[in-house]
Amino acid sequence: MKKIIKGILMMFGALTVVMGLTLQAESLESTKEEGVPKKVYMAVIIDDFGNQMAGTDAIANLPIPLTGAVIPGMPFAKEDANTLHAAGKEVIIHVPLEPINGKPNWLGPKGITTGMGEEKVKANLEDALEEIPYAVGMNNHMGSRAMQSKMIVSTMMDFANEKGFYFVDSKTYDNKIAAAIAEEKHTTYMMRDIFLDNTPTTEHAIGQLQAALKVAKEKGYAIVIGHVGPQKGPHTSAALKTMIPKLQAENVEFVTVSTLIDNLRAQ
Ligand SMILES: [Zn+2]
């Protein structure tokens, strides 16, 4: 009898220990949930590569996966694409599209305008792909006018589908034409959330990255666009350099647009 009671007591003892551990584990987990912010994704796209402009090397050397958009037809399109790829960054075609306001030379020799026929638009896109190695997607350079052309947008979405590319709408002009055509054609289509450098100062770009964190916390991810170039490049790269560790401490995972799309599909 004594032996049995002792056995029961031992069992109780063991149970208390197990329960104690379980409780402890639970409280550890809840502390972790409260203390560590939810993981969110941030995809940084840097536009206007192709001219070896200010900020090119600084961006290529940032210690995060990012996506560089190269303008076809520019003197150093191929070189910049190679620089980005060699640094382990993702490369996309930054399709130069006619704006409502702006100089024609901002588009370069491979610009796509509303005066062109479908064959010419297609030919320019094919040329761009030949010129820019490693491209896996595309986004629009300017395009406030051309992004309203159903023919141009349809041709781009067909091209994206044919090549297995995604299309990121830089949203240089607020219209829903591209979104509607992409949906109709089942093109992988994403939209830019935040421009980093409409005002070319480091402080502004830092503020925009903080705004992007807010967006990411709300919807799980944010797509931000910055630029290389004499005005914006140095500020945008400096702001990213400062903010990358701060955002990572907030549990932001920097990803290329491809990885973001893969992760969203897997959810
Ligand atoms: Zn651009």
The percentage of residues in β strands lies in 15-25%
Helical fraction equals 40-55%
Described by the principal axes of the CA atoms, the overall outline is globular
Report the structural category.
Answer: alpha/beta
- Mean pLDDT figure: 89
Low-confidence stretches: 1-32
Description of the structure:
The chain is globular and about 55 Å long. Strands 1, 2, 3, 4, 5, 6, 7, 8 and 9 form a nine-stranded parallel beta sheet that branches. It has two domains: 36 residues; 227 residues, Glycoside hydrolase/deacetylase (TIM Barrel, Alpha-Beta Barrel), CATH 3.20.20.370. The N terminus is likely disordered. It contains nine helices and nine strands. With 267 residues, the chain is of the alpha/beta class. The site of zinc ion (ZN) has 4 residues, from strand 1.
Key words describing this protein structure:
267 residues; alpha/beta; TIM Barrel; 2 domains; 9-stranded parallel sheet; 9 helices; 49% helix; 19% strand; disordered N terminus; binds zinc ion
Topology of this structure?
Blueprint: H1 2-35, E1 40-49, H2 56-60, E2 67-70, H3 77-86, E3 90-97, H4 118-131, E4 135-142, H5 150-163, E5 166-169, H6 177-185, E6 188-191, E7 194-195, H7 202-219, E8 221-227, H8 233-249, E9 252-255, H9 257-266
Parallel strand pairs: 1-2, 1-8, 1-9, 2-3, 3-4, 4-5, 5-6, 7-8
The structure holds zinc ion.
The site of zinc ion has 4 residues, from strand 1.
